[in-house]
Each structure stands twice: as structure tokens, then as C-alpha cells.
Write a structure and sequence with these properties.
The structure holds 2 protein chains of 2 kinds. Chain A is of the alpha+beta class. Chain A has helices at about 1-10, 10-45, 70-95, 155-160, 160-165, 170-175, 195-200, 230-235, 280-285, 345-380, and strands spanning about 100-105, 125-130, 135, 140-145, 205-210, 215-220, 295-300, 310, 310-320, 330-335. Chain A is about 35% helix and about 15% strand. In chain A, helix 3 packs antiparallel against helix 10. Chain A is extended, with a radius of gyration of 31 Å. By secondary structure, chain B is an alpha+beta fold. Helices cover about 45% and strands about 15% of the residues of chain B. In chain B, helix 13 packs antiparallel against helix 14 and helix 33 (about 960-985) packs antiparallel against helix 34. Classes of the chains: A alpha+beta, B alpha+beta. Chains A and B meet through helix 1, helix 2, helix 3, helix 4 and helix 8 of A and helix 3, helix 4, helix 9, helix 10 and helix 11 of B. Chain B: One of its GO terms (cellular component) is plasma membrane.
């Protein structure tokens, strides 16, 4: 465990080196200082008049700011008002963002996915229905959310082989130790992509239908552009095809234990969305900061639904594969639209409103206090 | 030298040692047992080749930072990993090695210096031959030959001198700072062939008091009863003293090497630690506790949390078999250690480096200061230890040497007063006789004193002394043997050198010379003087009635050519006035008193004509008393008192011991700054007292509490009982009756209250310190200390060097352990310079010993004011702020990381990237505080110098007490919580970009870190009162560098990294409006309380240019007064 820890905290060693450099500097200088002292003693008197510069005499011209009431009170007022403005803007923006959240874990007996939580059921599908009373303005973003799920475990977090993920086939044969125990299968075949993160990739899939007069109309889900542009274009790389076949680049390796299919089969329909450059995979590989998180699944940007989801009934078919109940986790679906500030978040607006009004109040209080004391001050002067 | 004998009286004879002169066995003793004494080697070095490694390592690891490093290193060794012990141990190893090499080199130099002394060749008499020997090979019992201007290689008993009268002259400048010549005497009856001398010396075991020595010499002569001679300090020649005006002497070694009085008075230079460093260590312990408790909390919670089903090992993060097999307790322990390593950044290891750099670089401002440059010696200030810069701002007690420090040790005859007329010597005199009347007498009938009286007065000055004329041929410019540096002594007029045990006498003789009466010398009991008409007058010296501190006068009885017998007497006014006619006294008293308050040393001169009968009586009395075997002293004094009566007063003299430039102003400033000034001197009480008056340490209204041998003389009581009585009386006066002094505010010299001055002398002090009954010791000491603490100034005279150190130590260790500063210029001050928290050496005339052993050396006393009031004050504020800031910034750095553990299953996941963890203390936040700690001037230097009271603002370590520390800690906690939870609430929806994409854990950490770096830097910007271009450069530069670095670090796929977790994280963060907004609001919110405090602390407008010591404002109740004394001031 300390190997892993150390790679994370290698900075400590680094730091000591820098400390050491400083220390050497200090000591060598003091050594020369000492020898100077000796020389001075030997020569009797040899000191020259010290430099008469502003710096050596500590007389550098300096600005001495004074936070006087004359600056601070208007300053507070301006900041306060600005913050109030921003806060109102943020709050109103946040209010306009529509969010639809649905827990589909299936803990309750009457929930649609309850039967999928049984261990025995394979390839379980369940259907979650919901209705919108008004237009859900587009573009609509479709997130899945997990809670009590710790993507930020330290050992989980380092359990991946970056060199594999940049398509370096050397590391396909011998994944890095940090992937252990997800580096080899029981027959000691190397796993690609190795490690706990890849192995635990979220594999529930969803299809969304609008129910129009009893018939299901498929809502097209756009899987492009859900991961960071840099992840897709620069950071992760697929191995180059061998003999024209992408799959044979993975020869001699096995898929992660929990995966139903190998990395090169993640999206057979779109070669640009396959392998390590699969958008869903990339989204998963960016670890969430907190144990309760959501990740972008799809965007609804096409066809009839480019302007949003119209009012009506919808049905969501869930291919339920991902177990979370063993660690008391929850899964949910989130539909949301976004604004310039991102997803819905009231916190920021409220914070700005509070701090803004605080500033305004403080400036008023200070004004009163200052006025009272300023007059007495003037009397003195 | 009777004073020495007085000291001998108290001596308790402990173990004694027996020395065989020349190692010759004595007939009397049954067996000649050559006893083992230590050799004459002087060892000032700290290490030997053998003990260097363990001793040095031990000393280095005593440093808390190194120890901490070692612990962290050991943590990684204990837990078996292939790489980490090397990577973290190597830097530690290097740091330790470099320090060891440096210290080894320094010790090497010390060895070299020791060798120089130890290998010095001296002449030793062995079996009738003179043998050259290395100094270190001198053994106790060896007869050593010393020639003029050589220093004595060990403590010797004087056996033979080249002078006829069996005396020799010695200066002890390097021992006790007295540069005058002292007369030492040979042991009687040894004035013959030293080879035939068979004798033993029995003397006390070595002890450090320079003025004490008791011994006995048994001289065996064939077919005679062994003669016993008592030995006193007047027979002992001390190592380090220099032989003067005597061709050569022979002496027998009694104490050698480390047992000599000089070596016993030398204290090793131990490393001084400043109060700030102690505070740092205390804070460090607090932070260590925080660190450990954080690790304990996390470990405990981890196992509590894991006990829940499914939490320990969810399916997506399974453990390896090895982990599963590990013992639970071992796992807990390793988890604990991992948390320790994770949070170890909270202990700002970089602080030590920064503090050291700050001290080292900061001390240059002292050496650079042109105000400290003395054109006379062409030198500025010297910094020997930069560790104590800030201690200069914390001084509570100043111990100053007198001779050469307060005074220039340059006696000058200023004026005299004859028959009530005051005469001042003018260099450009117009009157024929060189006298100028400057002040009229009390009765205005006469215009001038009678000429006869003037001549009589001058004659008296010429005759009444024990001065000797330096023999021709010897150079007047003396060489200070101790340091080999030429001592610049003013050339005496007319190439005439005088030698005397008191510089006053020389001044008087020289004064008389200026008026035309020149003392030519003493030849076979006849004194010759040259009068104004250039005629030689001859007087037969009949008797010298020596000076002693109880009588406080001395007399001579001379016979003129015409057969008249005259007695001339000079002495302190108090001892002369009762012995002359009262009407004469009235004429002179006024002048004497005025001169005394002006700080001159005054002496009154009287004379008496003795009739033949009177003289005959006196002569027999004196002869009898001299020959008395018992109570010789008492009998002599009785005769003296009898003879010295019925005199007539001729006049008075005023001699000035010139004060150092601005001595009085400096002392005033120090007292105004709340420091207590103690004068510790080896000099006589009268002299020292007048200096104190001249320096305005004692004022006209100061009531002097005297505790000296003189006041202890009491008919009824024993000395110690009297001491107790006096102590209690003074205590009542100065402590109990005094109005209660407000805590923390030292009474200023100018207050209307009765000022007390305290005077104690060395002999009395030794009774106080070592009374006969052990029980009394603590009581005496505490009484003594309490009295002293309530006195505005304390004068300790007749101090041996070690006693000076004892005093310093006593004050240092007294209640509240105040910070002490010693300032001195001579070798006799070395022990107190070393003992005090801060030792200042004056680059004076008495060699460089003090300078070498000091922490700071300045050319003149007057420089002390700026050194303390400006430099010390600023350094203290700077370093205190530096320390507090460092702890604060690391607390709010690591607190979010700690809080993050609650959200990541206690898995030791770092919140920040490794690069940020490393660079935080080194690059992003180090330069602004370093610049601040070098350049900050919260109050400008001029104002600091003008207002000494400002120094009191930072007294008692005001900025590093627990309250400000708590404030800074709470501030750190507040900001840390704010940073973490602010971002935590933002991340309740991690979709922060307008394209709906989500942010991960590294974005989280980067946002927190950005807020952190900006807040911490801006907090410092708020505290900065003095913005030079350097401050601007480093503060804004650091922030710019952070942004630049983050872009750079996240903008490139780094080939040497095994993961690219920060790739484009920073850029992506900046593309999110929400991230910007949360960063801004968190920074503002964190600084809001600070800004409010700044404003509320200082409600007055910027117009007033006053210094505010207290604020007339309700917010004053806010409990932060000590944190920002800087904010109480508006320039």
C-alpha cells in the first residue's frame, strides 16, 4: 500500500530535496561569512564603509496603504451591490434550470426495477415512466447518478495504467502493479484496460421513448461530446490497428472481469467511439470528487427534440446491469438543462446574496460608526 | 590592595592542594608525593575526532525540525517499501552532513586557536637551567620565567622579580577590564637563589573569583624552623594578565590549564536560542498534536466506517489477498502512519528554512547600516549570530559594563577648586599662571585665592599619590598581549608616562603638570617635583598611608628640604570633611556637590603641618602597627585615623571619566523603552556611581539603596545579619511601600514616583548568593531580585567576570524569564556576554575578545539605541508575523485535505495534486512572506527611534503569545472550512460548465487550491504596511506564477509522470463561470473578517500623525489587541 501512497506523496521527498538546497545555500553562505570574519580578524581592520543605497539602508520608497473609512465604506458598498447583482442573476438563472431526477435503484417493492435487484436475474430490463407537464427546454442533458459510491478511494483512483490507455501495447502484456488485483485474470492473462476504475465502468444503458398516443417514439440520444475534449482528443489514445484489425491490437489480453465485452467492442457501430476513446468510458474514467455524483450520459440535441422534451409521457427502458445495493448505493437518472453557470445550483446565488447583503450592512454600520467618531476626531483637530 | 585582604577573610578553607616548588621534595614531609594536577592545556573546542560523530548527530537531531524529518523518514523505513526510505532519507542525510561539515570546520578553527596558545614557548627553570617548553607542558610546581609584556601562561605565585623592591606590575585588562597597572609582591624571604629554595605551597582548590586567593608557603631552610608565609591575591599572577614595566619575574605555577582563574571564568559558547524559536517549538508541538489527532480521528473513523456492511470492500474496489491477510492492528497502524504522511504538511518544515534565510539575509541590514559605521575605526556593525535578530526587540534587562562601554576610560582633570574659587583649565589660557577663574567664591571679598594656597594645592597634587614614573626606554604605546592588536592610547605629554593603580591619580598628576608642577619621580624615598620656575624641589617621603575603601582617603607624609614635615591627604568629600575645619568646608562643599552631580569624580585635598613631636608619635605608631602580627589592619587604620585629623582643606578636584558619545541619551532611550539598565563593573563603587549619575541612570532625586561592604560594617551585628536587616529594610522601601506598578508597564525614568537606585558590590553579592546557611539563599535572592526589579537602575560594582555572569543568570532565570542583553567591550565582559540572551560587544580599546564572543558587535554604545529600538523592533515584528503566517497558511492548506477524508472513505486520498502539495510552500507562498519578513516597516525607522515607548508594544513576546496564535489558528481553521465546504456545496452538482460536462476530483482540489493560494497571498498583502517595489513584485508575481504554472503543468503531457491527472484541469476550471464565481466569493469572504478588523481597529481618519497606544473605540474590546500592534498605529 505504501507504494501507492508514495507515488501520491512523492512530493514529500521532492520537498526535502528543495529544503536541502535551501539548507546548503544557507550554510555555504554562512561559511563564507565565517571565513570573512576570520580574514577580517587577521587583517586587523579592513572593513569598508557600507553601501549607501536605499535598499541597504532600508529606505526604499514605499507605498503605505491605509485602509481608511473613506476607501473601505464605499468599497464595501460597491462590492456588496455588485455581489447582490451577481447573486440575483445567479439565483434567477438557477431557478430557470429544469431538473428531473428519478431514483431507479429498485429498493422499494413497487418500484419498476425491483425485480432487477434479484441476484438471479440476468440481462434484466425495466421500464421507468414519467410525464412532463410542460416543455423541458433543450438542449436536455441526460445524467446518471450514483450515491454512496466512492470513486475517490485512493487505491481505486490510482488503479489504472496510463500507458495502456495511451495505446502503448507494451503495457498490454504487463500492466502496472497499481492495477492489482485487476491486472490479470485467474488464468494470469493481462487485463486491458486494467485496474479498478475501468473494471467498474458503469454499464447500465438507457433508451428513452416518448409515448404518443400509446406508441413509443424513440428519443434520439447523442453520445458525442459528453467527455472532456482533451480526454478524447489528446490524453487517451487507442492502440494502432494490427493488420487493419483494431481488435487484434488487443491480442493476448483479456477484457476486464466485469465487462460483458472487450474494450474494442464498446461501440461497434462507431469506430470513433470505440476502444479507450469510447465517450462513456472516458466519462467514467474521470473520477468523481464526492461519493454522491452524477455523470453525463447523453445529450438530447437531435431531431424533434433539439428544442427540448415536449410535455407528455415518456418511458425509459433501463438495461439494469450495475449492482449497487451490496454497498447500499443508489442509482438515479437526471434530466437537466444547463445555463451559462452550468447545471442547477442554488448555493452560489444564495452565497452571493448573503455576502453581498453582509457587505452592504457592514458599510452602513461602518458609516454610522465613522460618522460618529469622525466628528469627534475633527473636534480634536 | 587591602581590599583583597578583606575578601580573604570570608574564605572558607575547603580542600587545599600542596605544591612542591620546583618539584623538590621537602625535608619535613615524610614522602614526596607528586600529586596529579591537570596539565596546562586550554580546550575551547567542542568535539574531538572520536566524539564528533555521535555528539554532533545528537545535537543536530535535538533540533525539532531535523527530528521530525527523522521520524517521517523512519515511518517510511519501518513500513517496508523498496524506494521511499532512500528518497526521503537522502535529503535528510545531506542536510545533516553539510551541517556536520560546517560545524566540524568551525571546531577545527577552535582547535587551531587552542593550539596556538598551548604550543606557545615559555621558559621554565629545571635543575638550574632555563628550558624552553611548550605552554601546555607546564606542570603545577614548575618555576616559570616571564619577561616584560608577556602574558602569564598559568596562574603563578610570584617568587622573584627583577625589580629591587620585589614588586612587579601587571595589567589585567583581558581579565577584568582594568587597564591600569597593578602591583604584585613577591613572597617575602624568597629573594635569593631559586635553585636553593625548598618550599611547599598550600593553597585552596581552584575557584573562579579573580580577587580571592588564600595560601600558605612553607619555606624550608637547612637547620632552621620552616618559615611560614601567608599568600594572598597580591602574590598571585593570573593567567592572561600581562607583565608590565618589569624586566622579568619568576613564579611557581599553582593552577594550570582549565583550572586557572581565567579558564574558570571562561564559559563555553553555547548555542543561544531566541524566545521566538522557543515559541516556534511550542507552536510546533501544538501542530504536532493537531497532526496526530487528525491522524487518530481519521484512523478511528475509518475503521468505524468500514465496519458497516459493504463499505470496507465494495465489489468495485477489492483488496488483494495480501491486504486481506494482514493483521487488523497492523493495518490500523499503517493507516495511521499514512494519514500522518498525508497531513505532515501541516508542520511547516519550510518555515525553518525560511526563518533561517530571513535571519541570515535580514542580519545584513545591520551590517549594512551606515549609522553603525564609525569613521574612527573604519568599521561598522558585525553580526556573529543571526539567530538572535528578533531577540533585539524583546530586551527587558540591559547589563552594561562601565569601563570602555559607558565611559571612554579616559580620565581627564577638569577643574579644581581652591579656597572656594573654581578654576577650570583652558587650553588657551590668557592669564599668566594658566588659571582662569570661572566661578566666584561664596563670599565675594576676595577675587582670587591666595597664591600660596594655589601652590600648596598643586604641590599636594604632585606629592599625594602612589604614581610611578614610567622608566625611560619603554614605549608608551602599550601592546595588548591578549589579542595582539595595538591598543591606541593617547601619547602622554612630554613623553612622560605614569603608572598607577588608579587612573584618577594619573589624571591628577597630569593635571598638576598642566599648571606647571611636574612630578619627576621617586628615587630612594625622595620625591622630586619641578615647579613653575623650573626648579627641582625634593621631598623626603616618610610614610604613605594607603588608600582603602573604608577610609576612602590616602595620605602621604613628606619632609621638605627645610625640615618641615607635611601631611597631604586626599579622599572622598565624606571622609575629608569631618576631619577639617567646618568653615573651610562651607567654602568648598557647594562646588564639590555640583561637580558630583555632573558626574565628575571629586576628591578633596587637605594638608597638615606636623610638628616634630606629632610626627614622632605618628611615626612610632605607624611602625608599630606595621610590625604587628595580629590585627595589623585594624591597628594601622587606627593610627591612620589618628594622624589624619585636624587638617586644613585646601581644595577639591574634579576629574572626568569621559562618557561615550550619547551615553546618557542612549540610556534614557533604553529606559524609555521599558528596559532596565544594570551597570555591572569591576570598578570601584565611587567611580561607578559617578558614572551612573553622568549617564543619568541615577538622577538627582534618586534614592540610593546601598548594599556594600561599607554599609555592612556594623559594630553590633555580624555581616550577614546586617545584610538581612538591610535587605528587608530596602525591600520595605522599594517594594512594599512603592505604589503598585501596572503589569507590563515598566516605570519610566521620568515618573513622579520616588526613584530608587540600588548599589551592591561583589563581596556582598557573594554573601547574598552563598550565605552561610543554605536556607537563606533563596530568601536573600528573592529579596534581592525584588528590590532590584523595583529600582530604576542597579549598579553592581567590584564584580568578578563570573559574578557578572551570575547576576545575568539570576535575572535570566527569575520569574517570567526576562530577556537579557549584555553589552561590554573587554575580556572581563565575555562571561556575561555569553550568559545573556543577547551579547553585544563594543569594538573598543580593550581588545577584541568581547567582539569575538558577542552575538553582535557595534563600534559605539550609542549604536545600541538604533540596534534595539529600530532593528530589533522591526525584526521581531517581521519574524513573529512570519511564524504566525506560516502556521496559519499551512493550517488552511491542510485542513481541506483533512476534511476531504470524510468524503473519500478515509482512504488517504490527497485533495491536491502532488505538484501543488510540493510547490505550495516553496514557490507559491514563500516569496511574499520572505519579502515581507525582510522589508516590512509597519512603523518607519525614524518614528521608532523618536518614540522609545513603541518598544513596549511588543514587549513580552506580544505577537507570539498564545492569544495571537489562537487567533491565527482560528483564522486558518475558518478559512480552511470555508474553502472546503464552499467548493463542496458547489460540487453538489458537478456539472459546472455550460456544455453540461462534469468536473472530477482533481478539479475540486484545484479550485480549493486556487482559492487557497489567492487568499493566503492577499491576506499577507493586507498585512503589509510598507509596499516597496519588491513587495509588489513578489506578491503579484507569485500569483501570476501560480496561474502560469498551473496552465503549464496542466497544459503538457509530461513524459516522466505515470499519470496525467491534472491535464487541462486548470484550463477547464477557468472555462467555467461558476468556478470563477466561487473562487471570487470564497476569497472575499475569507478576507472579510480581516478587512473588517483592519477598519474597525483604526476608526480615525488618515490625517492624524499621532501614535496611538490605546484606542478610544468600542471595538477595542475585540480580543485581538496583541495580534496587530501595527494596526494601532497610523502614520
Amino acid at each position: 500500500m505504501f507504494v501507492a501512497l508514495h507515488s501520491d506523496l512523492s512530493s514529500f521527498g521532492f520537498f526535502s530535496i528543495v529544503y536541502f538546497i535551501y539548507e546548503i545555500e544557507v550554510h555555504t553562505v554562512s561559511l563564507s561569512f565565517l571565513s570573512e570574519d576570520i580574514r577580517m580578524k587577521n587583517e586587523g581592520e579592513a572593513s569598508e564603509q557600507p553601501d549607501n543605497t536605499a535598499f541597504t539602508q532600508q529606505q526604499l520608497p514605499a507605498w503605505q496603504p491605509i485602509l481608511s473609512a473613506g476607501i473601505v465604506i464605499p468599497g464595501f458598498l460597491i462590492i456588496g451591490l455588485a455581489f447582490l447583482g451577481i447573486g440575483i442573476g445567479l439565483f434567477l438563472t438557477s431557478q430557470t434550470i429544469q431538473v428531473l431526477e428519478m431514483d431507479y435503484t429498485g429498493v422499494e417493492k413497487d418500484s419498476p426495477c425491483f425485480q432487477c435487484t434479484m441476484q438471479s436475474v440476468q440481462n434484466c430490463t425495466c421500464e421507468v415512466t414519467f410525464s412532463l407537464s410542460a416543455l423541458f427546454t433543450g438542449p436536455v442533458f441526460f445524467y446518471y447518478g450514483l450515491s454512496n459510491y466512492f470513486q475517490n478511494f485512493r487505491k481505486y483512483g490510482v488503479s489504472k495504467d496510463y500507458y495502456q490507455l495511451t495505446g502503448d501495447t507494451q503495457y498490454f502484456k504487463s500492466p502496472r502493479d497499481v492495477c492489482f488485483p485487476y491486472s490479470h485474470d485467474s488464468k494470469n492473462n493481462p487485463i486491458v484496460p486494467c485496474g479498478a476504475i475501468a473494471n467498474s465502468m458503469f454499464n447500465d444503458t438507457f433508451e428513452l421513448y416518448q409515448i404518443i398516443n400509446g406508441t413509443k417514439k424513440k428519443v434520439p440520444l447523442d453520445g458525442k461530446g459528453i467527455s472532456w475534449w482533451t480526454d478524447f482528443n489528446i490524453k487517451y489514445r487507442n492502440p494502432s490497428s494490427v493488420n487493419g484489425s483494431f481488435a487484434s491490437a488487443f491480442d493476448g489480453t483479456v477484457k476486464p472481469i466485469n465487462w460483458p465485452k472487450a474494450a474494442y467492442e464498446l461501440d461497434l457501430t462507431d469506430p470513433n467511439n470505440n476502444g479507450f476513446l469510447n465517450q462513456d468510458f472516458l466519462v467514467w474514467m474521470r473520477r468523481a470528487a464526492l461519493p454522491q455524483f452524477r455523470k453525463l450520459y447523453r445529450r438530447i440535441t437531435e431531431g424533434d427534440y433539439a428544442g427540448g422534451l415536449p410535455a407528455g409521457n415518456y418511458s425509459l427502458t433501463v438495461h439494469y446491469n450495475y449492482p449497487v445495493l451490496s454497498f447500499d448505493g443508489r442509482k438515479k437518472l437526471v434530466f437537466s438543462n444547463v445555463s451559462w453557470m452550468g447545471g442547477k445550483n442554488d448555493f452560489l446565488g444564495i452565497a452571493y446574496l448573503v455576502v453581498g447583503s453582509l457587505c452592504v450592512v457592514m458599510s452602513v454600520v461602518m458609516l454610522i460608526v465613522y460618522a460618529k467618531f469622525k466628528f469627534s476626531d475633527d473636534d480634536d483637530a | 590592595f587591602i581590599i583583597f585582604l578583606l575578601f580573604c577573610g570570608d574564605e572558607k578553607r575547603v580542600d587545599s592542594r600542596t605544591i612542591y616548588v620546583g618539584h623538590r621534595p621537602c625535608p619535613d614531609t615524610e614522602a614526596f608525593i607528586p600529586s596529579k594536577f591537570c596539565d596546562n592545556r586550554i580546550v575551547s573546542s567542542k568535539y574531538t575526532v572520536w566524539n564528533f560523530l555521535p555528539k554532533n548527530l545528537f545535537e543536530q537531531f535535538r533540533r525539532i525540525a531535523n527530528f521530525y524529518f527523522l521520524i517521517i523518514f523512519l515511518v517510511q523505513v519501518i513500513v517496508d517499501t523498496p524506494t521511499s526510505p532512500v528518497t526521503s532519507g537522502l535529503p535528510l542525510f545531506f542536510v545533516i552532513t553539510v551541517t556536520a561539515i560546517k560545524q566540524g570546520y568551525e571546531d577545527c578553527l577552535r582547535h587551531k586557536a587552542d593550539n596556538e596558545v598551548n604550543k606557545y614557548l615559555v621558559t621554565v627553570l629545571e635543575d638550574g637551567r632555563s628550558v624552553k617548553k611548550e605552554s601546555e607542558k607546564i606542570k603545577v610546581g614548575d618555576v616559570v620565567e616571564v619577561v616584560e609584556d608577556e602574558t602569564f601562561p598559568c596562574d603563578l605565585i610570584l617568587l622573584q622579580s627583577s625589580r629591587e623592591d620585589g614588586t612587579c606590575f601587571v595589567t589585567t585588562a583581558s581579565l577584568d577590564g582594568e587597564s591600569n597597572h597593578k602591583t604584585h609582591y613577591t613572597v617575602p624571604d624568597t629573594e635569593k637563589d631559586l635553585q636553593a629554595l625548598t618550599a611547599t605551597i598550600e593553597c585552596e582548590q581552584p575557584q573562579p573569583d579573580l580577587y580571592k586567593f588564600v595560601g600558605r608557603m612553607h619555606i624550608y631552610k637547612p637547620e632552621q624552623e620552616p618559615a611560614v608565609r601567608s599568600l594572598g591575591p597580591e602574590n598571585l599572577l593570573l593567567k592572561g594578565a600581562t607583565l608590565k614595566n618589569t624586566k622579568k619575574i619568576y613564579g611557581v605555577a599553582v593552577y594550570t590549564g582549565m583550572e586557572t582563574k581565567m579558564a574558570l571564568n571562561y564559559q563555553g559558547k553555547s548555542q543561544k536560542r531566541s524566545a521566538v524559536e522557543k515559541s516556534i517549538n511550542a507552536f510546533l508541538l501544538v501542530y504536532l498534536c493537531i497532526l496526530i489527532s487528525k491522524a487518530v480521528v481519521c484512523t478511528t473513523l475509518k475503521y468505524v466506517w468500514q465496519s458497516k456492511e459493504g463499505q470496507d470492500e465494495p465489489w468495485y474496489n477489492q483488496k488483494t489477498q495480501k491486504e486481506k491477510d494482514t493483521n487488523m492492528y497492523l493495518k490500523m497502524f499503517t493507516d495511521f502512519l499514512s494519514f500522518m504522511v498525508l497531513f505532515n504538511f501541516i508542520i511547516p518544515v519550510s518555515m525553518y528554512v525560511t526563518v533561517e534565510m530571513q535571519k541570515f539575509l535580514g542580519s545584513f541590514f545591520i551590517t549594512w547600516d551606515k549609522d553603525f559605521f564609525d569613521p574612527e575605526i573604519q568599521e561598522g556593525a558585525l553580526v556573529n549570530t543571526s539567530d538572535l535578530n528578533e531577540e533585539l526587540g524583546q530586551v527587558e534587562y540591559v547589563f552594561t559594563d562601565k569601563t570602555g562601554t559607558l565611559t571612554q576610560n579616559n580620565m581627564e582633570f577638569i577643574e579644581c577648586c581652591i579656597d572656594g574659587f573654581q578654576y577650570k583649565h583652558r587650553d588657551t589660557w590668557s592669564e599668566v599662571d594658566g588659571f582662569t577663574v570661572t566661578d566666584g567664591p561664596v563670599n565675594k571679598l576676595q577675587q582670587k585665592a591666595q597664591k600660596n594656597n594655589i601652590i600648596l594645592f598643586l604641590r599636594a597634587l604632585c606629592l599625594c599619590h602612589t604614581v610611578q614614573v614610567k622608566e625611560a626606554g619603554s614605549e608608551e604605546v602599550l601592546t595588548d598581549q591578549v589579542d595582539g592588536i595595538d591598543e591606541m592610547r593617547p601619547q602622554l605629554e612630554e613623553e612622560r608616562g605614569f603608572i598607577a593603580s588608579s587612573p584618577d591619580e594619573i589624571a591628577l598628576v597630569k593635571g598638576a603638570m598642566k599648571y606647571g608642577f611636574t612630578f619627576l619621580g621617586l628615587e630612594s624615598k625622595s620625591m622630586k617635583i619641578k615647579n613653575r620656575e623650573n626648579n627641582i624641589e625634593e621631598y623626603k617621603l616618610l610614610h604613605v598611608l594607603n588608600f582603602d575603601p573604608v577610609r576612602r582617603r590616602m595620605s602621604v607624609i613628606v619632609q621638605t628640604k627645610s625640615g618641615e614635615t607635611l601631611l597631604f591627604c586626599k579622599g572622598a568629600d565624606s571622609s575629608i570633611f569631618p576631619r577639617v575645619k567646618p568653615e573651610e568646608v562651607d567654602r568648598i562643599r557647594m562646588h564639590v556637590e555640583r561637580n558630583a552631580t555632573e558626574g565628575y569624580r571629586t576628591l578633596c585635598v587637605a594638608f597638615k603641618q606636623l610638628s616634630a613631636e606629632e610626627y614622632a608619635v605618628a611615626d612610632t605608631g605607624l611602625r608599630e602597627a606595621r610590625l604587628a602580627l595580629q590585627d595589623r589592619e585594624e591597628k594601622l587604620i587606627a593610627v591612620y585615623n589618628q594622624v589624619e585629623t585636624g587638617m586644613s582643606l585646601i581644595g577639591a578636584t574634579a576629574v572626568e571619566d569621559r562618557l561615550q558619545e550619547e551615553a546618557a541619551e542612549t540610556m534614557e532611550a533604553l529606559q524609555g523603552a521599558g528596559m532596565k539598565v544594570w551597570v555591572l563593573t569591576g570598578d570601584k563603587m565611587e567611580t561607578a556611581k559617578s558614572t551612573c549619575y553622568a549617564c543619568r541612570l541615577f538622577q538627582r532625586g534618586t534614592e540610593l539603596l546601598e548594599l556594600t561592604l561599607r554599609t555592612l560594617e556594623d559594630e553590633r551585628l555580624k555581616r550577614e545579619e546586617k545584610l538581612r536587616e538591610l535587605l528587608q529594610e530596602y525591600h520595605r522601601k522599594a517594594v512594599q511601600d512603592a505604589p503598585p506598578v501596572k503589569a507590563g508597564v515598566t516605570r519610566s525614568w521620568s515618573t513622579a514616583n520616588q526613584d530608587y537606585g540600588f548599589i551592591i558590590d561583589g563581596a556582598t553579592l557573594s554573601i547574598v548568593m552563598n550565605p552561610q546557611h543554605e536556607v537563606d539563599a533563596s530568601q536573600y535572592k528573592s529579596l534581592f531580585l525584588q528590590i532590584c526589579q523595583n529600582c530604576t537602575a542597579v549598579l553592581c560594582c567590584r564584580m568578578a567576570p563570573l559574578q557578572k555572569a551570575q547576576i545575568v543568570k539570576m535575572v535570566k532565570t527569575s520569574k517570567g524569564s526576562p530577556i537579557t542583553l549584555s553589552i561590554g567591550d573587554g575580556a572581563n565582559d565575555v562571561s556575561m556576554i555569553l550568559e545573556a540572551h543577547v551579547g553585544i560587544g563594543i569594538k573598543g580599546k580593550e581588545g577584541r575578545q568581547a567582539v569575538r564572543n558577542s552575538d553582535y558587535a557595534i563600534p559605539k554604545l550609542k549604536h545600541l539605541k538604533k540596534l534595539l529600538l529600530a532593528h530589533g523592533h522591526l525584526y521581531y515584528v517581521r519574524i513573529a508575523h512570519l511564524v504566525q503566517y506560516f502556521f496559519y497558511k499551512n493550517l488552511c492548506f491542510i485542513l481541506p485535505q483533512f476534511l476531504y477524508q470524510f468524503f473519500c472513505g478515509y482512504s488517504q486520498q490527497p485533495l491536491y495534486d502532488a505538484a501543488y502539495l510540493t510547490m505550495y510552500n516553496i514557490c507559491f507562498t514563500s516569496m511574499p512572506i520572505l519579502a515581507y519578513s525582510l522589508l516590512e516597516q509597519h512603523i518607519s525607522i525614524e518614528i521608532l527611534l523618536d518614540n522609545a515607548t513603541l518598544y513596549r508594544e511588543i514587549a513580552n513576546n506580544a505577537m507570539l503569545r498564545w492569544r495571537p496564535f489562537l487567533y491565527w489558528t482560528l483564522l486558518g481553521i475558518f478559512q480552511g472550512l470555508l474553502f472546503f465546504f464552499g467548493v463542496r456545496f458547489l460540487f453538489s452538482n458537478p456539472a459546472l460548465q455550460d456544455n453540461g460536462q462534469v468536473f472530477g476530483n482533481w478539479s475540486y482540489g484545484t479550485i480549493v487550491f486556487t482559492v487557497l493560494v489567492f487568499t493566503v497571498t492577499l491576506k499577507l498583502a493586507l498585512d503589509t504596511r510598507h509596499w516597496t517595489w519588491i513587495n509588489h513584485f513578489v506578491i503579484w508575481g507569485s500569483l501570476a506564477f501560480y496561474v502560469f504554472f498551473s496552465f503549464f503543468w496542466g497544459g503538457i503531457i509530461w513524459p516522466f509522470l505515470k499519470q496525467q491527472r491534472l491535464y487541462f484541469v486548470f484550463a477547464n476550471m477557468l472555462s467555467s463561470v461558476s468556478a470563477w464565481l466561487v473562487i471570487i466569493i470564497l476569497i472575499i469572504l475569507s478576507l472579510l473578517p480581516e478587512i473588517l478588523l483592519v477598519v474597525l481597529r483604526k476608526p480615525r481618519g488618515p490625517h492624524s500623525r499621532q501614535v496611538y497606544l490605546s484606542l478610544p473605540f468600542p471595538f477595542w474590546i475585540l480580543p485581538f489587541y496583541h495580534i496587530h500592534p501595527i494596526l494601532c498605529y497610523s502614520p
